[in-house]
Design the sequence.
């Protein structure tokens, strides 16, 4: 008899898990429940190709919509799960339907962090999290449209690049003293500030948003220095928060994310969790982490699938990410700490260089811009806990393989 | 409709009726072959790694530096390694033969 696996959340983690489990044929009966009206899709293109209108919407789906029914997966879109009854092993859907599960997987991801200012509820204040968000912005993103972006992180900068390419007039308002301050070291921040300014994007640092105002819709943004910026589009990209209410209400351990072990299992033996919503141990890094990344969503989903197929193994990968802005492809690995040693390899002016991070001589992170080989090598070193000589690393006369 | 002959990781062979105008990766992914394509085809990872049959390698568009940099350092790298997201499927590639590289 098939085990009924109910997957809550049809994003990258949920979609991948369903696809993986479906390969085991009759062993599992799979129900994949998503709150959005789209089948599982990739979010990275939302601030890049899809925003620029370079691809049709269907191209971002993980699988064609027909795939799920073809594989016998019961795909329930536009459906919310309101509660879990752990003792009875059922979940309740909005509308009252109850589904019994043998195992449950929570892949609820994250939700946007709302900007806490007056005017936040005005029509015309946009975020980028879903296909619908991107399509709404794209419709308004005509040449000359004035865009004010709150937040100079990945979303803000990727959107700035995309909207600038569409001919919009773009201003980025960033609270910290440099862009992407959470994720990268100063040389990388400065490089991107220069690159965006060279494309005509206005970047205001050490500036916050004080208020959003307008006549029935968002028409201007007042910043923390009192300047008022006229806006046709207001876009906010100030981070996300993990969706954990369902887990918390059910009494599962939660700590900035649903707490899971190295096999993606929660504090309930029949409930797993994967993706942006989890806090999990990473043996390679020696810490627990909550990662907002496609790699983690996919790898953790695979971990659950292996576990359910009796081929389980502890999940411990080097986290990796990427960001595309203009012709700049940045590939990143590891989770460097703010006080790690920073080593620049190559000349930023060439638009192909990398920055490595060392902790006690060991590579803890790498940001490689248009030089994939440095990223691949750096990621390998992080996984090995390799000690590297900073002087050799900085010397581009020495090929990266020989450092 | 052009076809692709695929050997999967377990060594099983199959033939796929492919769609022209999309990448080889998308063809594999849409038909549930075992590649992860984590970065969705933006040449930012190497999880769509395939070995192209020697007879076909020369018929493909040349590998650019971005692709080379990513795949060359993979422990599973071979001379005929390609990232399938960087190969557009066309009618001219009808009969393309490839093997899915082992998981890294």
Sequence:
């Amino acid at each position: 008899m098939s085990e009924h696996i109910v997957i809550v959340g049809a994003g990258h983690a949920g979609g991948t898990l369903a696809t993986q489990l479906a390969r085991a044929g009759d062993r599992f009966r799979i129900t994949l429940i998503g709150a959005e009206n789209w089948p599982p899709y990739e979010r990275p293109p939302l601030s890049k190709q899809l925003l620029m209108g370079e691809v049709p919407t269907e191209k971002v789906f993980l699988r064609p919509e027909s795939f799920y029914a073809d594989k016998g997966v019961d795909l329930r879109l536009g459906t919310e799960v309101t509660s879990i009854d752990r003792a009875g092993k059922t979940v309740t859907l909005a509308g009252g339907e109850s589904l019994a599960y043998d195992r449950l997987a929570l892949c609820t991801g994250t939700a946007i962090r709302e900007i806490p200012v007056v005017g936040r509820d005005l029509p015309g204040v946009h975020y980028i999290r879903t296909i619908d968000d991107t399509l709404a912005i794209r419709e308004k993103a005509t040449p000359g449209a004035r865009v004010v972006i709150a937040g100079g992180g990945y979303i803000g900068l990727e959107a700035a690049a995309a909207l600038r390419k569409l001919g919009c007039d773009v201003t980025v308002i960033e609270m910290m003293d440099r862009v992407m301050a959470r994720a990268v070291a100063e040389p990388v921040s400065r490089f991107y500030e220069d690159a965006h300014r060279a494309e005509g994007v206005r970047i205001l640092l050490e500036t916050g948003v004080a208020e959003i105002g307008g006549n029935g819709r968002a028409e201007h943004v007042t910043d923390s220095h009192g300047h008022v910026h006229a806006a046709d589009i207001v876009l906010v990209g100030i981070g996300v928060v993990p969706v954990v209410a369902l887990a918390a209400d059910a009494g599962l351990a939660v700590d900035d994310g649903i707490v899971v072990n190295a096999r993606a299992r929660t504090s309930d033996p029949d409930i797993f969790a994967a993706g942006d919503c989890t806090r999990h141990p990473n043996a390679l890094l020696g810490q627990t982490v909550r990662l907002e990344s496609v790699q983690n969503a996919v790898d953790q989903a695979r971990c659950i699938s292996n576990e359910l197929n009796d081929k389980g193994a502890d999940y411990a990968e080097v986290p990796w990410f990427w960001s595309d802005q203009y012709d700049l492809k940045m590939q990143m690995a590891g989770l460097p700490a703010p006080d790690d040693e920073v080593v620049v390899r190559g000349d930023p002016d060439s638009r192909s260089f990398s920055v490595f991070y060392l902790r006690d001589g060991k590579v803890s992170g790498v940001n490689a811009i248009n030089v994939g080989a440095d990223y691949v090598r750096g990621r390998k070193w992080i996984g090995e806990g390799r000690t590297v000589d900073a002087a050799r690393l900085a010397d581009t006369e020495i090929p990266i393989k020989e450092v | 409709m052009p076809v692709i002959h695929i050997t999967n990781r377990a060594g099983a062979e199959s033939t796929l009726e492919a769609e022209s105008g999309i990448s080889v990766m998308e063809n594999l992914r849409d038909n549930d072959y075992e590649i992860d394509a984590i970065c969705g085809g933006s040449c930012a990872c190497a999880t769509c790694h395939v070995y192209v049959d020697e007879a076909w390698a020369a018929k493909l568009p040349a590998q650019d530096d971005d692709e080379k940099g990513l795949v060359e350092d993979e422990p599973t790298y071979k001379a005929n390694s390609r990232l399938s997201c960087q190969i557009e499927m066309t009618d001219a590639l009808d009969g393309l033969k490839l093997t899915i590289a082992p998981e890294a």
